[in-house]
Amino acid sequence: MPELPEVERFKQYFEGTALHQKVVQVEIADAGVLACTAETLKEVAEKHTFDKTDRIGKYLFIETSADKVLMIHFGMSGSLKYYRDDPPRFGRVVFHLANGFHLAFDCPRKFGRIDVADNVKAYQAKKKLSTDAYKMSWEEFEQNTAGRKGLIKPLLLNQQVAAGVGNWIADEILFQARVHPETRTNKLSKNELRLVYDKMRDILQTAVSHEANYNHYPKDYFIHRRGWTDQNTENCPNCGTKVHYMKVGGRATYLCEVCQEPQEV
DNA sequence: GCTAATGTTGTGCG
DNA sequence: CCGCACAACATTAG
Ligand SMILES: [Zn+2]
């Protein structure tokens, strides 16, 4: 679930709920989601307030009054829930707040992580994350993809190249740009690469504007072939051909074999 | 019971 | 050291 648009929604959700609240206690129900020690997390959060948020790609940052930042990554199934009496089923870490509410990191599959860093820049450097894909310039995108010989889809999923692009977004970009996901990046013309970039920006903008609610995405979006939305269909929005399913770079991939021709070898 | 899953990272090779 | 391909991770939903 959580790609850039969802994490942006979680950020806004946090800003409307737990931001500026004081943490009384941090409950760690499952230390498996911690990338730092329990002690470190408590030091940075307990008796402190949540002061400021930030986001790079799928990584959410929360600065506290301890002058450090919490990092939350949602993995494949994580989310946030702010509540008084109705806890989520898989609250792996719960921040108990002074106002009587609670903020849970709900993470059924436990692929998510919570970490602590001195500041956002330091964390970004440690993970070598690129600029957020939503804000990335063409010049930077061109630079980050220059000289790459691997397949375009796995490259788009590389958070050091375009932080925030996830699996469905990569498929959506490549369909809209009419590029086969197994095309070698260095075989793309400059115009094709520019189209990939433009579609990336446009799709992220659209998804964020709909607060990552898939059902509200445009009718001709390729996402409606993944079986996730109310308007699901098996046919290409452009030519009507039945969509093709395959694995690319080990990831579930949907494409139109007619509109996205394989690269000539 | 079996399968697939929206993400990241470690390993091994070149 | 870097790029790339691939397996592994933990657990749920269908
Ligand atoms: Zn088509």
TrEMBL record:
Domain Formamidopyrimidine-DNA glycosylase catalytic: 2-112
Any Pfam family matching the protein: Fapy_DNA_glyco
Family annotation (SUPFAM superfamilies): Glucocorticoid receptor-like (DNA-binding domain) (SSF57716), N-terminal domain of MutM-like DNA repair proteins (SSF81624), S13-like H2TH domain (SSF46946)
Domain FPG-type: 222-261
Catalytic activity: 2'-deoxyribonucleotide-(2'-deoxyribose 5'-phosphate)-2'-deoxyribonucleotide-DNA = a 3'-end 2'-deoxyribonucleotide-(2,3-dehydro-2,3-deoxyribose 5'-phosphate)-DNA + a 5'-end 5'-phospho-2'-deoxyribonucleoside-DNA + H(+); Hydrolysis of DNA containing ring-opened 7-methylguanine residues, releasing 2,6-diamino-4-hydroxy-5-(N-methyl)formamidopyrimidine
GO biological process annotation, one example: base-excision repair
Residues spanning the signal sequence: none
Acetylation listed as a keyword: no
InterPro entries on file: DNA_glyclase_Znf_dom_DNA_BS (IPR015887), FPG_cat (IPR012319), FPG_N (IPR035937), H2TH_FPG (IPR015886), Ribosomal_uS13-like_H2TH (IPR010979), Znf_DNA_glyclase/AP_lyase (IPR000214)
GO molecular function: class I DNA-(apurinic or apyrimidinic site) endonuclease activity; damaged DNA binding; oxidized purine nucleobase lesion DNA N-glycosylase activity; zinc ion binding
Top-level lineage group: Bacteria
Keywords associated with the record: DNA damage, DNA repair, DNA-binding, Glycosidase, Hydrolase, Lyase, Metal-binding, Multifunctional enzyme, Zinc, Zinc-finger
PANTHER family membership: FORMAMIDOPYRIMIDINE-DNA GLYCOSYLASE
Similarity comment: Belongs to the FPG family.
Protein name per Swiss-Prot or TrEMBL: Formamidopyrimidine-DNA glycosylase N-terminal domain family
Species of the source: Microscilla marina ATCC 23134
Phylogenetic lineage: Bacteria, Pseudomonadati, Bacteroidota, Cytophagia, Cytophagales
